[in-house]
Amino acid sequence: MENVLLEINDHIAQITIHRPQALNALNKQTISELSSTLDELSGNEDVRVLIITGSGNKAFVAGADIKEFAEFSVTEGAQLAALGHEMLFDKLENFPKPIIAAVNGFALGGGLELAMACHIRIASDNAKLGLPETSLGLIPGYGGTQRLPQLVGKGKAIEMITTASMINAQDAHTWGLVNQVVPQAELAATCQKMASKIAHNSPSAVSAVLRAIAGGFNDKVNGYNIEISEFGKCFGTDEFKEGTTAFLEKRKPNF
Ligand code: DAK
How far apart are CA 45 and CA 214, in angstroms? Predict the structure, then answer.
């Protein structure tokens, strides 16, 4: 891998997008490397939580690589949008383990779309977030028109996208775009701490939660029915037995 670094410790996988010379902009190769990294981690039973961040302390991801997409045709644009959803953005959203985006600076265009496809976002206090596509004659092409309104509401999403303006980390927090804002020096530790808390809970229950909540945002299924079905399945897991037995024996569960 050239543009993606991977480190695994204590059930937590840290993925770093590493193209510092282009503020970690997403080119085709980076999208492909991220896609195969996710495939690898999906089946790795030792990994329970993922953290995705950008290299350096200036940018998470400053968008899709403008130099690369500047020459695309209409057909190429549509094809690549569909492919990008399938290869990366939908894969992140439907990933069976929680993914925390550690937003350590600029998260623009495809970079903010990447963060929004993750399950949780924690930003450093220097982060700037925005969807500047309309300033380039484009619209967000990796799910931004759908995921931003889900997080901040329709009016604020329309404002952010049509003005192409960046907002700072504090406003992103107030608007519900990020879960938490911390000083940049504390970002990595904060994400690790949250990931570690998640990793200590039942992996099968955590995964079921992701499916049930995702069900509520999928027009083709009924989220309540998914919850009912996932809830029922929990009673057949060893982790349920361990969790309840540990409580009754007044000890911590060992998942
Ligand atoms: N792509 C390529 N290179 C980038 C880049 C980007 N998005 N962002 C920054 N860089 C490069 C700069 O060109 C510069 O490289 P050199 O000139 O040194 O070779 C280097 O990173 C450092 O950037 P700056 O010198 O500009 O740094 P500053 O601190 O002055 O400014 C900035 C930081 C983040 C404000 C600025 O770099 C900036 O405005 N960057 C562009 C932000 C942006 O507009 N991002 C793209 C949004 S549109 C698609 C689906 C989706 C999309 C596209 C296609 N398909 C399905 C086909 C999504 C589109 C977008 O993301």
Answer: 22
